[in-house]
Write a structure and sequence with these properties.
Elements lengths: L2 E5 L3 H13 L3 E5 L2 H10 L4 E5 L1 E2 L2 E2 H9 L6 E5 L4 H9 L4 E4 L4 H15 L8 E4 L2 E4 L4 E4 L2 E3 L3 H12 L7 H8 L9 H15 L9 E4 L3 E4 L4
Parallel strand pairs: 1-2, 1-3, 3-6, 6-7
Antiparallel strand pairs: 4-5, 8-9, 9-10, 10-11, 12-13
Helix pairs in contact: 6-8
Length: about 230
């Protein structure tokens, strides 16, 4: 059974979301402040985190940064702000998705299911992927650069696997989105993909400003470069 973590201070929203996800067969733990969240998260093991951005004693962004220090569990932000800067910030610090209030419950559940699906390991007989100085241990979901363990989000991990499984092949944005997200989920667009790729480059490239591994092919897409 999947176990979810919710950081939210609105009692009516807590009640509605808790009822809905339990009806879907999930367990859920709830924190109403960032202080409660620190304790609760540290004492539990979760498959997905749902974080409100604005809280009485802080922000869900703060908890996201702490989670990303040790975990690549999927993170969804709940926010009343739909400003592009807030959305980009949430994705940049390690979030995998966001949904702006008010939202329809069916949309929330659809995106929740999508995040959980994306976080599952690829079904494959291959146990490792290697290219240049990047190594992925698929059975453990671990990524190493020059022998050093990297901390990636679920989306970053899946994106990196997709590139390394298709070396030196140009992948269009549509192909990438089609592999990593359901076609019906049109809320994931090219702008979000650009953020994911930029964030991944900061972790795997020696110089993210001049990438050598994930190459942009203008007008066509991206490719994983195996040449030195």
């Amino acid at each position: 059974m999947k176990r979810l973590f919710l950081l939210e201070d609105d009692l009516s929203l807590i009640s509605g979301l808790s009822f809905a996800v339990r009806k879907q067969g999930y367990e859920i733990d709830v924190a109403r402040t960032t202080l409660e969240a620190d304790t609760l998260w540290g004492n539990g093991k979760y498959d997905l985190a749902i974080l409100d951005v604005s809280l009485p004693d802080g922000s869900g962004f703060d908890l996201c940064k702490k989670i990303r220090q040790t975990s690549k569990v999927p993170i969804m932000f709940l926010t009343a702000a739909d400003e592009e800067t807030d959305i980009i910030m949430g994705l940049d610090i390690g979030g995998d998705d966001y949904i702006t209030k008010p939202f329809k419950l069916a949309v929330f559940l659809s995106r929740l299911h999508a995040l959980l699906r994306r976080s599952e390991n690829f079904n494959t007989d291959v146990t490792e992927l290697k290219s240049n100085d990047i190594r992925i241990r698929l059975l453990k979901g671990e990524v190493y650069k020059q022998g050093k363990l990297l901390v990636l989000t679920a989306s970053e991990y899946k994106l990196l696997c997709l590139f390394m499984e298709n070396p030196d092949q140009i992948l269009s944005p549509e192909q990438i989105l089609g592999k990593l997200w359901d076609c019906s989920e049109n809320y994931v667009d090219n702008n979000s993909l650009t953020v994911y790729i930029r964030r991944l480059r900061t972790k795997i490239e020696d110089n993210p400003g001049e990438p050598k591994r994930i190459i942009t092919v203008r007008g066509m897409g991206y490719k994983w470069n195996t040449a030195d």
